[in-house]
Amino acid sequence: MMGLDPVPAYPESPDRGLEALLGCLCCPGCAAPLRHERTRLACAAGHSFDIARQGYVNLVAGQTRHRGDTAGMVAARDRFLSRHHYRPLIDTVTVLAAHHDPDVPGTVVDLAGGTGRYLAAVLDRLPHRHGVCLEASTAALRRAARAHPRAGAIGADVWRRWPLVAESASIVLNVFAPRNRSEIRRVLAPGGILITATPTADHLRELIDPLGMTTVDPNKSERLAADLRGFAPLDAQLVTYRMGLDHEDARTLAGMGPTAHHVSEDELDRRVAGLPELTGVTFAVEVAVYRASSG
Q1: CATH assignment of the domain containing 179
Q2: Binding-site residues for Zn(2+), please?
Q3: 189-211 pLDDT, tens digit each
Q4: How far apart are the first and last CA of the chain?
Q5: Binding residue numbers for S-adenosyl-L-methionine
Q6: pLDDT tens by residue, 138-160
Q7: Which domain holds residue 138?
Q8: By the 8 A CB rule, do 153 and 17 touch?
Q9: Which residues are part of a known binding site?
């Protein structure tokens, strides 16, 4: 195994990030405030939610039909991001977050934030902020809970009502993730901002056919604009460059996304073996900043 830079792990007090978030969390069953009771969070109505030993807490009420990423997908994403292939994207998100950091109190919410890598980078840049990673995957939550000392990890279904108090977020991050417009609008404080990262049709184009990867809708930008009616655009940057990926990189990249759900590991190995030893791959993602319009 090559030496990789892992997501920083902070061993002390695994639920340390939850304490600072209690003011923005609410019960998914009744929306009442939550309090910390030793190894669980609880509301006055008697609903309680155990804090996992890794430090995250699952606030999904009832069953959810949305499956999170598998442990294999999460590990692949961590390995790939640790190789710094997406570093320019992380840098762009953090620079825009710092430049447009609103003068309002509130938490940084990373929507479907995976292992919390983007959230951790933003919190490093904004030392006065705390953050929360909302994520469905248990495997990802285990890592996100230790991603940053000022961050907490919460199990949530992003398509339902989020277990967050209204107007409790200053910044919402939406990086390669589904977006629930009504919930984003509900949790953003007046003056708060939304930062999105959306792949263009050129993103990873050299690997899509050879590896059977999911294509990007060429009308995705138009759909995003329609999804975000009621939000005013503030800024946008196209992050585009070429990556040189060897077989291991290409295999890991394909295994960290939706391809892992519909292409078997053996088939993926066979496809990767047919690639050149080093493949030039296009990275093309638009990062945009929005503010919720008044009214």
Answers
A1: 3.40.50.150
A2: 43, 47
A3: 999 999 999 999 999 999 999 99
A4: 54
A5: 86, 115-116, 203
A6: 999 999 999 999 999 999 999 99
A7: 16-198+218-236+286-292
A8: yes
A9: 43, 47, 86, 115-116, 203
